Amino acid sequence: MSYYPVFLNLTDKKVLVVGGGLVAQRKVETLLQYGASISIVSRHLTPRLKELVETHRITFVGSEFTEDHLAVVFLVIAATDDPMLNHRVSLDAQERGLLINAVDQPEDCNFIVPSILRRGDLQVAISTSGKSPALARKLRQEMELQFGKEYEKLLLLMGSVRDQVISRGLPQDENKRIFKKIVESDMLEAITRKDRERVKNILKSALGNKFNQDTILDQVLGIGGM
Fold this sequence. Notes:
Layout: E1 14-18, H1 22-33, E2 37-41, H2 47-54, E3 59-62, E4 75-78, H3 83-95, E5 99-102, E6 115-119, E7 122-126, H4 133-146, H5 150-167, H6 172-183, H7 187-192, H8 196-207, H9 213-218
Helix pairs in contact: 5-6, 6-8
């Protein structure tokens, strides 16, 4: 089966997690990082999940799953240790046209979760279409050595540059020229070395005198103090 890769905005979206073990806990903790509003159904909860409920970071909605739990839900995770229950959750969710992932049961999923490398707003998603999650994890671990925190800083800088360039209303070709010149320069190496002067010179070469390079640098956390 071929899967269409997509990144979802889960901020304030309602997500139902069915299950309360360690697998469900990992799913919940990841979903919280992306701003989801999480409800959980399970007979038992790990100590960490209990803590999240008690601190109102997630909402406990019952010990037994029913179709009513799917009302106004955007996405569902079935993460119990009961394959038949996961299958029932999947059927009920798909009947309502919901996104559903049943852990380790690809036939009960209409989307799968990739292995994710994250550096700030930079995300690299690795999928084997469900054939080998272990291989996806191995590839992610290898890429973690290649993509360090300097990529997070580079992306922060490029976001600041983009905001200022777009606000000037320059021709599209000029915008592309600026972005390409910075990305294809040794900017990443300069950020890695914390070479503020080199970063400024690259920006000046790409932007000319239309922009204040210090303003751009000072807007980027971690670069202003180079």
